[in-house]
Amino acid sequence: xxxxxxxxxxxxxxxxxxxxxxxxxxxxxxxxxxxxxxxxxxxxxxxxxxxxxxxxxxxxxxxxxxxxxxxxxxxxxxxxxxxxxxxxxxxxxxxxxxxxxxxxxxxxxxxxxxxxxxxxxxxxxxxxxxxxxxxxxxxxxxxxx
Length: 145
Fold this sequence. Notes:
By secondary structure, the protein is an alpha/beta fold. Helix content is 46%, strand content 12%. It has a 3-stranded parallel β-sheet with strand order 1-2-3.
């Protein structure tokens, strides 16, 4: 179920919005992933597998949209640890928060505003060639920690 909800739903949604005529030249599709796709996090196994699959789905969708010459870009955003309702559901959230605070060279966690600003920038004119990527929006948290 986790794979279907967190990874496969992006494919279903993309197919439906394409068929419905809602995606066209300049459209951007973003998925939210996490460092759990590449690192072991206690009690995160099912989500880790789903995030890894989600990133793969982004690459595949990016390739398929490109081959169809649609002008649609697809990328995954890998935000740093951010206080969200989803984070608060993770039993080890306090350990994750402590790790993020210690690992992030800026000495703070990623905020929702940090992620929103990155998505706005990535959605600006002339960014159509950025596709099929996992883009870190974490202030250097992953590479530092």
